[in-house]
Each structure stands twice: as structure tokens, then as C-alpha cells.
Amino acid sequence: MLLFIYTLISLVLIWLISNIKIKFSFKIIVIFAFILRVSVTLLFLSSKSDDINTFLRDGQYLLDRNPRYDASYFPFIGYLGVAAIYLKNFIHPYVFLKIIFSIFDSAVLFPLYYLAKKNLQSVLIYALNPISIIVINIHGQMESIPLFFFLLSLLLFMKNKVLSSILTLSFAIYTKPWPILFVIPLIKKSKKKLLFVILAFFPLILTLIHSLLFPTPVLDILYKVKNHRGIFGAWGLSKIALYLTDYQLSPFAEQLMRRIFLSAFVIFSIFRKDKNLLKNIFMIMLFLFVFTPTFGIQWFTWLVPFIIIIRPKLWRMFLALGSVYMAFGFAWDVYQNFPDIISLRNSVITELGFFVWIFIIILFFQNVFFKTTES
């Protein structure tokens, strides 16, 4: 039950911090954030997941010069897997990868600090937030790496350093393609729209170099990246569709739901207008969470910095519900050998996920029609 106790303590601290003026320096908060993440990693040392094992598998393929390519992303994460395997006599591969992810999650505080107009309260809340820590330090996902580069690209864009922003965003997409979903708001606001063709620079160039060094064709890599999907039926509308059809939904219907969503997502991204770039991206993210037929629970980490900066109504409730959902969602990684806890987790995760989805729907439509409060 330690995971749930940790989550509860973090949420209480966030509630207290959100009502007081922070007197700690930015440097102290960054150091604290890193120490906290490493401490959680060591506290849940036995925690493991299919995702982190996949990163190590991809690294082993590279070491063996195996032409097989099973990764869902560009080759970046495979190199970290190589480093983890190479150093395994000195540090456990899980710990190594989670420390790397922790470095980037702590580094997220730098762009967040400036995007939040140097609001130390926002910085400390992110440092404490259990959603990111559970996903990164307990489950072992790499979301902090693309998230750092994505936020940095937004900061550069808002400082009118468009070329630097696009190159940074290009590298973010290379680490994980997810940031490409939120490119449209940048294109709409930029006067240098043609520069956005440079977004393909790092994904294409570094993938080509990878194929020259390793026996994996470029097209095989691009095919895997193109066809990567979240899990269908794990969230929201697709879960309801599966339930109503007694889990006999046809592949054609699944594909149709994906295509309708993608079309609607692009249309919403084009026509949604917010003066504030961060608010615009936040609304597009909420649209995705409300209507997507495919889902990955780790996607919640992308909402966290925007929730903390923008502070929409019910933002504390989002952090609370999201954190509890993450704790139950990834309890399997920690308590695989504790059948009572796993039984509890399995009995509530579906209902809890549905409740969180309904809450996000409320949050979305509340912010479609009403202005958010300023951070």
C-alpha cells in the first residue's frame, strides 16, 4: 500500500502549497525534484513494466546488430537501452533508465518556470506531482524526454526564436512522435510557416544515419512509427463501443472510429482559437482525451504542466483524480506478487478510468465556453 500512501501525501502537500507563497529558490526546488524522483525509484526498486523491458530489448537488438525493428518510435530510445545494458555491471538497467528519465523530468522545471512567468508555486507543484513520478519512476516510461523538448520548443517560440523552436520540436518528435499532434497551433501563429518543413529534419536524418550504421531499412522504421497506435477499447468512447457490442466490434468499425477522430482532431486544432498559445494546446489535448478511441495511460503526463500553468477551474481535482488513477493503473508494476492488491486494482480500474474520463469531459466543455483563471 506504500504507493497509495505516497500518492496521498503528495496530493496533500500540493493542496497546502497551492495556498501559500513559496520562499524556496528555484535551484533548491530543482535539486529537490531530482532527489525525490531518485528516492521514489529506489523505494520501489522492484517495480518493472513491459515498457522499460521493451527499451532494453531494443538496445539488445542494436548490440546484436539484429535487423529486426519492433520499436514503436524512432531509434532514439534504443540507444539509451544500449547504454543501460552496457553499464549493467555497475548499475541496474532499470535504475539507469529511470535516473535518465528523472534528469529530464527535473529539467522540465526550467521551461515550465519561464512559461509560468517565474511562478515558483507552479514549479514546486510540478516537482511534487505524483502523475509524472508514477509514470516515470515507477512504471519506467520515457515521457519526460519528449515533454522537456516540447516545452522548450514552446518557450523558444514564444520568445520569437522560431527556427530554434522548430529544430527543438523536431528533436522532440525524434525522441517520440507524440508532439507532432500539437504542431498546428504553432503553424497558425507563426509568420514563417514554410520553416515548419524543417520538423522532418531530425527524424529523417538521424533515422537515415541509423540505417547506415545498423542493418535496419529506413522504410521498416518509418512503417513502425506510422502504424503505432494507443490501445483501442481502453478508454472513453471506444470502451463504451466495445461494451455495447459485447466486445464484438468489427475491425472496420474500429478503423472508422480512428479516422473520424483524426479528422475531427485536425479540424478542431485548425479552428480552435485562443490568444494564449499554451491555452490553445491545452484545449487540443483535452479534445484528444475526450474523443480519442485509442489510449495510453502515460499520456496524462503531457497534461500536467499545462494544468499547472493555466490553472483551469477544478485543476486540483484533476491532479487528485489523475494521481489516484495512475496509482491504481500502475499498481501492477509494484505489486505483481501481492494478489489481494492486484485484485483490488483490477476491480476498480475500469470504473475509476470511466469516472476520470467523465471529469475530463466536464473540464473540456467548461473551458470551451468559459475563460480559465490566470496562473
TrEMBL record:
One Gene Ontology CC term in the entry: membrane
Keywords annotated in UniProt: Membrane, Transmembrane, Transmembrane helix
InterPro entries, per the entry: Bacilysin_exporter_BacE_put
Segments traversing the membrane: 29-47, 68-87, 93-116, 123-142, 194-214, 284-308, 314-335, 347-369
Membrane among keywords: yes
Domain of life of the native organism: Bacteria
Name listed for the protein in its UniProt record: Glycosyltransferase RgtA/B/C/D-like domain-containing protein
